[in-house]
Amino acid sequence: MGLEMKTKCEKCEKKVQDNAYICVHECTFCYKCTNDMLNICPNCSGELVRRPKHAASWPLS
Ligand SMILES: [Zn+2]
Ligand SMILES: [Zn+2]
């Protein structure tokens, strides 16, 4: 039930509020790390996608 938005990149711990990328498990990364990892989450091998700014619209169906 945790809808808390993560605000730090899990790799470099930079703040990622407006430019975060997440996988289906909500692993959170910054743009640079996401780019370095070729949009693949290192934790679950899922695809990293740009997180919508409005939490209410997430997850998208
Ligand atoms: Zn990062
Ligand atoms: Zn993941």
Which characteristics define this entry?
mainly beta, 1 helix, 3 strands, 61 residues, 13% strand, Wheat Germ Agglutinin (Isolectin 2), domain 1, binds zinc ion
Report on this model:
The chain has one helix spanning 31-36, and strands at 20-22, 28-30, 49-50. The chain is built from one helix and three strands. Strands 2-1-3 form a three-stranded antiparallel beta sheet. The protein has 61 residues and is mostly beta strands. It has a single domain (1-53), classed as 2-Layer Sandwich (Wheat Germ Agglutinin (Isolectin 2), domain 1), CATH 3.30.60. The mean pLDDT is 87. 10% of the residues lie in helices and 13% in strands. Bound molecules: zinc ion (2 copies). The site of one zinc ion has 7 residues, from loops.
